[in-house]
Write a structure and sequence with these properties.
- The protein is mainly alpha-helical.
- It has one domain.
- It has eight helices and no strands.
- The longest helix is centred in the C-terminal third of the chain and has 28 residues.
- The N and C termini lie far apart (45 Å).
């Protein structure tokens, strides 16, 4: 299932974001910008980290809608992300370019699902989210997701190396989000006891 024809850029170096082809359709332009996390993946260094910051910023107002809407948006982002990341990768003519960060957006949203469920209520969201414990919880979720996304312990590393296309781009971040969410719940329960 690996696509050996497309190479993955060296993320230890600063990389320029591959340009959008000049003949791209309006739909491809929209998909490209979604793939770049509305520009949060553009920095030359650490675009995955910046993309995760962008995803976290977008998640906050989405979580204010309540758990069920945030869950539905997160699930939809994962399914649509397979197509968004795959098409953006085709437009960039490379596999899983680090500037493609829609997968980081979906991954951090998965990590935040327990926070959305347990942490804050929809009716008092903006008051609850400004509390110091909520801010600490968001920071812990961010750090845990980046840890799992960067270190790629099994099965994340397997998914990153063995699954090609849009599914391959998304799958490692989905798994990282699930693992980070599980550890986040353990950490938060430990802090609250």
């Amino acid at each position: 299932m690996t696509d050996h024809n497309l190479s993955k850029p060296d993320i230890s170096k600063a990389n320029d974001c591959p340009p959008l082809p000049t003949n791209a359709s309006l739909l491809d332009r929209a998909v490209y910008w979604l793939g770049l996390g509305l520009g949060s993946g553009l920095p030359r260094r650490a675009p995955g980290t910046w993309g995760t910051v962008g995803g976290l910023i977008i998640a906050i107002p989405l979580m204010s809608l309540g758990f069920v809407p945030f869950l539905l948006i997160t699930v939809l982002s994962c399914f649509l992300g397979i197509w968004i990341c795959g098409r953006t990768s085709e437009l960039m003519q490379g596999h899983d370019d680090p500037h493609i960060v829609w997968d980081e957006w979906s991954g951090i949203w998965i990590t935040l699902l327990p926070f959305s469920y347990m942490g804050v209520s929809a009716t008092s969201f903006w008051q609850d989210i400004s509390q110091s414990l909520s801010i600490i919880a968001l920071i812990i979720a961010f750090v845990l997701f980046r840890f799992f996304d960067i270190i790629k312990p099994p099965p994340i590393g397997w998914a990153d190396k063995k699954v090609a296309g849009g599914l391959g781009i998304m799958l490692d971040d989905i798994i990282a989000g699930v693992m980070a969410a599980a550890v986040w719940m353990i950490v938060m329960m430990g802090m609250l006891l």
